[in-house]
Specification:
Elements lengths: L2 E6 L3 H12 L3 E7 L3 H11 L3 E2 L10 E4 L3 H14 L7 E4 L10 H5 L3 E7 L15 E6 L1 H12 L4 E4 L5 H28 L4 H22 L1 H4 L3 H4 L2 H14 L1 H17 L8 H5 L2
Parallel strand pairs: 1-2, 1-4, 2-3, 4-5, 5-6, 7-8
Antiparallel strand pairs: 6-7
Helix pairs in contact: 10-11
Bound molecules: NADP nicotinamide-adenine-dinucleotide phosphate.
The site of NADP nicotinamide-adenine-dinucleotide phosphate has 26 residues, from helix 1, helix 3 and strand 6.
Length: 281
């Protein structure tokens, strides 16, 4: 008999995962518990779940996914513990990037095994999302992960461990590399526009440079991939560009200065530029 999955929070991620596991014949969606009755009923139908439930009618399942927004996970765990349906040895997990499994402590206190698995992926369209080649950060009870990780791997995902206490910095890394990359591209486009280059031309001409830089990081590592005025120790250019970007937009200028400090850590030893000169610009 297939393992049953209770889904609490049938939003973008919850619907995507439940649909994929059901389609792969790995799990049987049992109960779906959401906030809005009509949306929850529609999710049940789409996922082939037995029924929608509320906190009074939720039935036990071997596996429960809490897929409510991060801010509601602790409260949802408390409700679930209070509902008394989670049995000794049942597995409960969430998929937040920033929160650890200890947010599920009330369930662990009731004998459940808890974990968190964060897929590094955006589930904008739950009907067509896949987990093929998606990397998933895993932490929590080893016994829970021994069951949950293979479910992700069976969908083509790769699992890796994050040490206890490491989720915030792990998630910061993802935010820096993804969301803040978008912010950095916006800063570059603002500078292009201020230089009189239209935004679409600016983006077209930056794209090959960005692609080449990413390829260099993959092949050579960050230190060898760093080129430009900081790597060359071109103090005059760095100082002038900090001033020019600050004049254009204070936030962009600050970003240029802070990123120059980080770049300096990667510059060749003995480069003719130091932190104080960057900070004073
Ligand atoms: N979406 C992604 O790309 C993505 C990627 C990786 C990880 N995650 C993680 O996945 C989790 C869910 O994110 P999401 O983007 O799928 O969120 P979402 O689309 O906003 O869905 C959240 C679901 O939880 C329901 N809900 C909200 N508060 C609730 C409560 N107090 N009790 C019961 N149900 C409640 C919502 O109901 P309503 O429909 O009534 O609002 C909705 O069905 C988060 O931990 C997030 O960090 C998401």
């Amino acid at each position: 008999m297939k393992m049953q999955l209770n889904l609490i929070g049938p939003g973008r991620l919850g619907r995507a995962l439940a649909r994929l596991w059901h389609a792969a014949g790995l799990l049987e969606p049992a109960c779906v518990l959401g906030r809005d009755p009509a949306r929850t009923e529609a999710a049940c139908t789409a996922l082939g779940a037995d029924r929608s439930a509320d906190w009074n009618t939720l039935a036990p399942a071997r596996l429960t996914l809490i897929a409510t927004p991060d801010a509601a996970i602790a409260e949802t765990a408390r409700h679930l513990a209070h509902a008394g349906v989670v049995r000794e040895g049942d597995l409960v997990f969430h998929c937040s990037g920033a929160l650890e499994s200890d947010v599920l402590a009330p369930l662990r206190d009731n004998g459940a095994l808890v974990a968190s698995v964060h897929p590094l992926m955006s589930f904008a369209r739950p009907e067509s999302a896949t987990l093929t080649d998606v990397w998933c950060a895993c932490e929590g009870d080893a016994t829970a992960l021994a069951v949950i990780e293979p479910l992700f791997r069976a969908l083509g995902a790769h699992c890796f461990a994050v040490a206890p206490g490491g989720k915030l910095l792990y998630h910061s890394a993802a935010v820096l590399a993804c969301n803040h990359l978008v912010a950095l591209m916006e800063a570059a486009l603002l500078s292009m526009e201020a230089a009189g280059v239209p935004r679409d031309t600016g983006w077209r001409c930056l794209q090959p440079l960005i692609a080449n830089t990413l390829a260099n990081i993959s092949q050579l590592g960050t230190r060898a991939a760093l080129t430009g005025p900081v790597a060359r120790g071109d103090r005059a250019t760095v100082q002038a560009e900090i001033q020019a970007t600050t004049q254009m937009d204070e936030d962009v200028g600050r970003a240029y200065r802070q990123l120059s400090l980080l770049a300096l850590r990667l510059a060749p030893e003995g480069v003719a530029l130091n932190r104080a000169e960057i900070l004073a610009s």
